[in-house]
Please model this.
Amino acid sequence: MHHTKHKGDRGVLKAQLDLFDQGFTILNPLTEHAPFDLVAYREGRFHRIQVKHRRLDATGKLEVKFSTCWADRNGTHTVPIDKSEVDLFCVYCPDTDECYYLSPEDFGSSVALRVEAPRNGQKQGVRLAKAFRRVP
Model:
């Protein structure tokens, strides 16, 4: 199943399991219209989390855009997220079967995580995905 809704549901389920394994209690909003997909709670702290399902590109990179997109009769619309309404992005990658956690406040409009080292040997400015495996 490759329908967008199914991929999103799979990402949320993977995030819930990963967060549970990290010791969080998982809370689910009662609406699909919240700016976040779930809330994780541990040691007196709540984290509002938006979950994204992303595949690796041909170079072994995960591209994450901090925006939301929808389509209606007037076309396709893309707007930046309100970073004050989301504490973390959880990016589930089916190619690695892992979740990666990003604070949108730490980045501009997008970020690229490298699952595989760049073929040209570049090290400066490279964000390795494995560094984002745990909730900060």
Notes: The CA atoms of residues 29 and 38 lie 6 Å apart. The chain is about 15% helix and 35% strand.
